[in-house]
Amino acid sequence: MPLPKAELHLHIEGTLEPELAFALAARNGVTLPYQDTEELRRAYLFEDLQSFLDLYYGLMAVLLTEDDFAELADAYLARAADQGVRHAEIFFDPQAHTARGVPLGTVVGGLSRALDAAPERYGISTRLIMCFLRDLPAESAMETLRAAGPYLDRITGIGLDSAEVGHPPAKFKEVYEAAAALGLRRVAHAGEEGPASYIREALDVLGVERIDHGLRCLEDGELVDRLVRERMPLTLCPLSNVRLRAVDTLEAHPLPRMMAAGLLCTVNSDDPAYFGGYVGDTFHAVREALGLGPEQLRELARNSFEASFLEDDEERRAELIAAVDAYDFAVEGRA
Ligand SMILES: Nc1ncnc2[nH]cnc12
Ligand SMILES: [Zn+2]
């Protein structure tokens, strides 16, 4: 049995495997600019975040119906369960779908169908986090927040993703204030490709409760001290950082240094269909490449539950942390 863990940084659209993309394309009469899954996979050689985003948004053309979104989410949950995920806080990009004429209700309806079945089917509790595309105008994000009104009982929080550099967090101040007034939790990508100052801004201007990535905090010692002091969770994605060239190699990833500095680190898969592994694969990869021992893996798993939005189910959180503490690597073996 794998180590129990929560996944807190996972874009559901980033779990679209080539096989499912082609199956949905055939079903929906969509022509993809690739002959087959092999050719598509060969295109997964990214230069940076933008080169990934171009392909990622393009492939979403196959996602059209409620069934498509339900199948996508169910396929992720099945894989996640196999890798020890017991709780998942799942990002989705509403504007990437509404811009193509897919109604928000179709997206939320399809995802919710899979998520609602997950506790019984896979033993996974879930939350849904709606992300705004930061390279679109703030007015578009505000409009999306308004349009989400009827679905707010399904949505736990908001996030901020897409092309980071040139789109600082402060651009979304009013949107985050409006979301906070609605009782939504707040997270944001910051310090993936953007500077450490974006992390500060996400904290000070947007009032976020977790930083997605946060890798570049290391360039600002005072910021690191603050993140440690405030026990601010970072949702790191080491395989993503390698594929999008934020770090040169997995062996050079600063995760061990960040843990040693006292940062509240979690390990996640980001867009696993594109970056070479789901979250259990990621735990395995960092164990091998960075020489993390059982106690460090246990700390990462414990952190994932501590950093999760399980406040309305403290009993479940405590139960999951106890399962991490009781996990016997010698007997069970897999991270
Ligand atoms: N790693 C990432 N950074 C920013 N936006 C994203 N959307 C999907 N994956 C992303
Ligand atoms: Zn991400």
From TrEMBL:
Substrate binds at residue 271. Residues 4-325 form the Adenosine deaminase domain. The active site is at 192 (proton donor). Pfam families: A_deaminase. Its cofactor is Zn(2+). Binds 1 zinc ion per subunit. The keyword Transmembrane helix does not apply. GO terms for molecular function: adenine deaminase activity; zinc ion binding. Its EC number is 3.5.4.2. One of its GO terms (cellular component) is cytosol. The keyword Membrane does not apply. Zn(2+) binds at residues 9, 11, 189, 270. GO terms for biological process: adenine catabolic process; hypoxanthine salvage; nucleotide metabolic process. Belongs to the metallo-dependent hydrolases superfamily. Adenosine and AMP deaminases family. Adenine deaminase type 2 subfamily. Catalyzes the hydrolytic deamination of adenine to hypoxanthine. Plays an important role in the purine salvage pathway and in nitrogen catabolism. This is Adenine deaminase. It comes from Streptomyces qinzhouensis. The lineage of its organism: Bacteria, Bacillati, Actinomycetota, Actinomycetes, Kitasatosporales.
